[in-house]
Amino acid sequence: GENILSVDAVSHAGEMRTFSREECDFSYRHSFFQCSGTRDEERWIILGALLELTPGDRGAIRREQLRILEERRVKFPHHQPNCGSVFSNVPAVYDLAGPPGRIVEETGLKGKQVGGAQVSFCHANFIVNMGGATARDVLSLIGEVRRRVYDRIGVWLDCEVRYADERGVLVPASEACL
Q1: Is the pTM of this model over 0.85?
Q2: Which residues pair with 51 in a beta bridge?
Q3: Is 146 a catalytic residue?
Q4: 21 labelled catalytic
Q5: Where do the structural domains in the chain lie, given as residue ranges?
Q6: In the chain, what is the straight-line distance between the N-terminal and C-terminal CA atoms, in Å?
């Protein structure tokens, strides 16, 4: 959020508002918008942002973009439907046991499958749809991975993935697994 000056958003109740960078409460993989309330006037959808960027050398920027894209192409399972990184990279957990993908892999869960949902063989912090996976399959698999990791290292992995509950409220998938 350090490059964001302001964010334009609309509430689920229809109110338009511009939020300052401070009001957005940005930190690592967190913002006010992810934690807004359950009532329509408390829930916001981002429409746009005003950024403050530093000019740079176009060629150098393009080379860095291509390097990052190639790294991601090789590292992540883009060839299968997935919802991106499942578990958050929490600094305290990282210091204890490493990144979530490695933790899941070292717990022996690469390839673990529930229904049509599977912990990716390509990267263990991704759950892929092998065909016909339901939300229940994915949530069950997330719950099992979290329990097995907890049994092994004594830490509950937090989820980056959000689940829309029956009221349309987004909650971390780990809360939907309970």
Answers
A1: no
A2: 4
A3: no
A4: no
A5: 4-51, 80-176
A6: 31
For residues 131, 132, 136, 142, the Cα torsion angle rounded to the nearest 10 degrees is: 0
Active-site residue, selected from the candidate residues 17, 29, 67, 72: 29
pLDDT in tens, 10-34: 988 899 999 999 999 988 777 888 7
Residue corresponding to tokens 């993989």: 29
Closest CA to 85 of 125, 124, 28: 125
- In the annotation, is 88 catalytic? no
CATH architecture observed for domain 80-176: Alpha-Beta Complex (3.90)
Q: State the catalytic residue, choosing from 85, 88, 120, 174.
A: 85
Amino acid at 28: Y
The dihedral region occupied by 115, where left means phi > 0, alpha psi between -120 and 50, and beta the remainder, is left
Q: CA-to-CA distance for 35 and 61, rounded, in angstroms?
A: 33
The Cβ of residue 21 has, within 10 Å, a number of other Cβ atoms equal to 17
The one-letter code for the residue type at 95 is D
- Catalytic residue, from 36, 120, 146, 160: name it: 160
